[in-house]
Amino acid sequence: MTTDCHISIAGLTKRFGTNTVLNDINLNLTPGERVAIIGPSGTGKSTLLRCLNFLDRPDAARITIGDLSVDAASATRTEILALRRRTGFVFQNYALFANKTARQNITEGLVTVRGWSRAKADARADEVLASIGLTDKADSYPAALSGGQQQRIGIGRAMALDGDLLLFDEPTSALDPEWVGEVLDLIRQIADGRQTMLIVTHEMQFAREIADRVVFMEGGRIVEQGPPAQIFDAPEDERTRAFLRRVT
Ligand code: ADP
Ligand code: MG
Questions:
Q1: What separation in Å is there between the alpha carbon of 44 and the centre of ligand 2?
Q2: Each residue of 168-195: pLDDT tens digit?
Q3: With 0-12 CB in 10 A as exposed, 13-18 as middle and 19+ as buried, what is 246?
Q4: Which of 5, 93, 132, 173 could make an SS bond with 66 (beta carbons 3.0 to 4.6 A apart)?
Q5: From atom 6 of ligand 1, which residue's Cα is the shortest distance away?
Q6: For residue 22, which ligand has an atom nearest its CA?
Q7: Which pTM does this prediction carry?
Q8: Which ligand 1 atom sits closest to the C-alpha of 44?
């Protein structure tokens, strides 16, 4: 899963009506870098992740993933699909297809976005199900799975694409406390493989543990960033300090 792919987000601005939700965000990730994004609710963290693969269309941005560089002003459908092939997205609420089994949830994107044959996608899904420890749930529907198992399938679906960048949007915040541990364990395992990832999380201890860099956002801007020890133990900006006092 390691990659030599540099990632750059340049001049990302996003408005909803007159509300500027992201204001000139610039962020680069080196290959294998694990970056945690923290910040108050409503600050644009989800929108930032969604803009990276055009689930929300940025008003301005140049998104570069390796040799693919897409400018929001001129992005074509082909370029957007190419971006999506290179990024896996893990949603807060899992966003599984209720009428598809665990295996089908994993194969769906491989068949429709990647154009893989059913047989090849099934083989990849079985490999992923084994690595997330859910082989025995391959034919189960989401309703028959615990929240933790559903989110592990959500993560497996993103992993199966074997993209250059994994995006996690508060992957444990919809879970009952009893399921949080198994999901964090799985993300830890992926992080240990030096998968390049951007993870929005409210689990500060987890961010400290797995991230190479922590980015604090407020009001649609990056306020401060640095190694976990610097951000958590010696934040320089008063807004970062105030946020950390509230959440820790
Ligand atoms: P966070 O993930 O940091 O909590 P969001 O990215 O979800 O923040 O939201 C940032 C701001 O953008 C909020 O003010 C939110 O109400 C607004 N917003 C998000 N999505 C939409 C949308 N689809 N339409 C209008 N406003 C939106
Ligand atoms: Mg959010």
A1: 7
A2: 999 999 999 999 999 999 999 999 999 9
A3: exposed
A4: 5
A5: 44
A6: 1
A7: 0.96
A8: 6
